[in-house]
Write a structure and sequence with these properties.
2 domains; Rossmann fold; alpha/beta; EC 3.5.4.9; three-stranded parallel sheet; six-stranded parallel sheet; single chain; 17% strand; 10 helices
Length: 294
C-alpha cells in the first residue's frame, strides 16, 4: 500500500513554481499576482485564505487580500469584482465561498473574468474543461490529477467511481477521469445521495474518489482489494482527547480501508495541500497567458 502524500507533492510543486518565478524575476518579467476576496468572518474560510497568502509569499508571488464585511451588499461585491477584472496587475483571483445569504453566488461567479478565474468555477471554463479545451481546471480536481500522475497510478481502462456530484469536485472529476489522455481514459460511474445499492457499485471500482463530506462513510467491506482511494472529505469531528477539541476526518475509514488499498490519500495531508498548490499553478498559467496576449 502506497500513501499518496499530498503534502510532499504540493511542496515539490511549490519548489518548481519558485524556480520559475525566480527565472521571471531574472528576466525582469512581471511576477504572478493572486488576489482573494473574502466576505464575512467564517473561521474555516479565513484559515484557508490565510494559507493561500502564505503560499504566495513562499513561491514569490504578489498577493492581495480583500476583506469585506458580512453585511456587504451584492452590488458592492460586484463592484469590487469589476475592479479586479479591470486591474492589469492582477493575474488571477478567487472569491472565497460560501458567501452570505444576501449575495447570489451564481451571479458573483459569472461576473468573474474567465481569464482570471483561477478557481475554474466560471461556466466558460467549466465548459472548456468538459470539451477537453485548454482552460483552468478547478484546483481540487487538478490536484487529484497531479497526484495520480506523479505516483504513476494507472487509470486507463479502469472503473472509477466518484461519490458526490458537487460542481467543485464530484462533477468535474467525473468528466476529467473519462477524458482522453493520462490521467483519464477510465470508465466513470457518478454516484450521489439518490444512488441505490452504492456498495454494489463501489465494490466493483478500481478507483474511488469520495467527495461526500460524511465522516468514515466508505468502509472496508465496500471496496475490493488493490483499490485506489482518493479521499476528498474534510470534516471536523468533536474529540475531547485533542487540544483543539476536534479532529479532521475524511470520508474513508482509513485504518481498515488502507489494508485493502494499493494507493490511498490520508486526511489530513492528502488532497487538501494539493488544492492550494494547484491554485498557484493556475495563477502562474494565467500570468503566462496574459504576458503572451500583451
Amino acid at each position: 500500500m502506497t500513501i499518496l502524500d499530498g503534502k510532499k507533492v504540493s511542496n515539490d510543486i511549490k519548489d518548481e513554481i519558485t524556480e520559475q518565478v525566480n527565472k521571471m524575476k531574472a528576466k525582469g518579467e512581471k511576477v504572478p499576482h493572486l488576489a482573494a476576496i473574502i466576505v464575512g468572518n467564517d473561521g474555516a474560510s479565513l484559515t484557508y485564505v490565510g494559507s493561500k497568502v502564505r503560499a504566495c509569499e513562499r513561491v514569490g508571488f504578489e498577493s492581495t487580500l480583500v476583506k469585506m464585511s458580512s453585511t456587504t451588499s451584492e452590488l458592492e461585491l460586484l463592484d469590487k469584482i469589476k475592479e479586479l477584472n479591470d486591474n492589469p496587475e492582477i493575474d488571477g483571483y478567487i472569491v472565497q465561498l460560501p458567501l452570505p445569504d444576501q449575495i447570489d453566488t451564481q451571479k458573483v461567479l459569472l461576473a468573474v473574468n474567465p481569464d482570471k478565474d483561477v478557481d475554474g468555477f466560471h461556466p466558460a471554463n467549466f465548459g472548456k474543461m468538459a470539451l477537453d479545451m485548454t482552460t483552468f481546471i478547478p484546483a481540487t480536481p487538478f490536484g487529484i490529477l497531479e497526484l495520480l500522475e506523479r505516483y504513476g497510478v494507472e487509470t486507463s481502462g479502469k472503473h472509477t467511481v466518484v461519490i458526490g456530484r458537487s460542481h467543485i469536485v464530484g462533477r468535474p472529476m467525473s468528466i476529467l477521469m473519462g477524458r482522453k489522455g493520462f490521467p483519464g481514459n477510465s470508465t466513470v460511474t457518478l454516484t450521489h445521495s439518490h444512488t441505490k445499492n452504492i456498495t454494489q457499485i463501489t465494490s466493483q471500482a478500481d478507483i474511488i474518489i469520495s467527495a461526500l463530506g460524511v465522516p468514515n462513510f466508505l468502509k472496508a467491506e465496500m471496496v475490493k482489494d488493490d483499490v485506489v482511494i482518493i479521499d476528498v472529505g474534510i470534516t471536523r469531528v468533536a474529540d475531547d482527547t485533542t487540544a483543539k477539541g476536534y479532529r479532521i476526518t475524511g470520508d474513508v475509514d482509513f485504518v481498515n480501508v488502507s489494508k485493502k488499498a494499493s494507493f490511498i490519500t490520508p486526511v489530513p495531508g492528502g488532497v487538501g495541500p494539493m488544492t492550494i498548490a494547484m491554485l498557484l499553478k493556475n495563477t502562474l498559467l494565467a500570468c503566462e497567458r496574459h504576458r503572451k496576449k500583451a
